[in-house]
Amino acid sequence: MLNFLKKLNTLLILSAVTAGFIFCLCGFARAVPKGVTVNGESVGGLTVGAAVEKLRRRAEEDLKGKSLKIIGEKTQYVFTYPEISYKDDFRQILGSAKRGGEYTAEVRYYLCGINEIVSDICREEKVEKVEPYAQFKTSGEPFVYFGGADGRQADPSRLKSDILNSLKGGFEPVTVRYHTSFRSTTLSSVKEKTALLGRFTTYFDGSNVNRASNIRLASALLNGVVVEGGKTLSFNDTVGARLPERGFKTAKIIENGEYVEGVGGGVCQVSTTLYNAALLSGMTVTEYHPHSLAVGYVPPSRDAMVSGSSCDLKFKNPSAFPVYIRSRTSNGAVTFEIYGKSDGASYSVESEVKEIIPAEEEQCYDPALVREGKDGVLSEGYLVINRSGFVRKIKLRTDRYAPQKRVTLAADPPETQEQEAEGGPNIENSNFQYTITCVFKRLVL
Question: Is 67 a residue whose pLDDT tops 60?
């Protein structure tokens, strides 16, 4: 019984489908009453299907002669059939047409994939705004400035509406409308962020070839460095190891209170120059080391010795904006300049000698042992901050620079003077006494 009901249900469904198909076929094959015109096209006596086809061929021919032009600032976009298609109500009109009737059918044009096309045009026409900016240079003028440009964004809703209205009307050209994306900064604000904060110069003997070469090399490695806001610069990390294979040469360095030959001599003058420029620019020095002996290129308590990885110069950029470091070496001078956004204060550095530490003195009969020597110094360094007329003086450091012993050439030994008084020196004995005396002095030293 169940199988019978299933078969009966299937037969009923098939019968309904067949009846609908026959009904549609009859409707499609039904003749249009005589004398009927649609949009000026005579279709009387044709079957409904043939009349619809005739009217659509006419509509397609009309559409092929049309084009939609969209005018953007970058380019023009032209759309034609079949990108532009249409919908009609021909069949509805023909289904109720009367003999001799004149009818006007509605042909509605549309752009295929209009949403995607609008999105693509808007993306193509978009111009990103460019904020004013400065290009940092390592030579010549420190910065080249660019004013930037406002951006634009096509209005997608307006564009779609204009396209639809054009298709409804006479296919008038559509002009893309835009919103302007205005720059949020000005060129003057960029220049404020790249102002000269501080500059410092020290001088050296250019005839000391190796030392001058080391100064130029270390200076060049720091030229063009940018320290971002809140970041710290390490001299040793930036300049790198002072090694012969990296181009550094042998020159005088200070070691254990004495001047000796060492690779990289002169680099400390570079670090000292940068140290002073950093202080004058409002940077926060987080690490420095004084020399054991006072140096001649800056006052005491204004030097910054670097050595290997144990002694470094470090300073932090306390602002939220980058600072830019420029250096140059020429004509026996090394100069550092630091650019960035001023905090509104001006800075200066002072050195005060608190005490002179006398150097020991001794005499020697050997000219090879003579040296000039130098008094030591106890000194203090201060940072002077002037902010809108309010001046503060901050003590930065206290340093003790060791003295260097003075050795002068003594007069002739007494024995030589007695021999001369007796009628002439004993050359052999005089040389012997002189040699013994110098050996003794050398042992004492």
Answer: yes
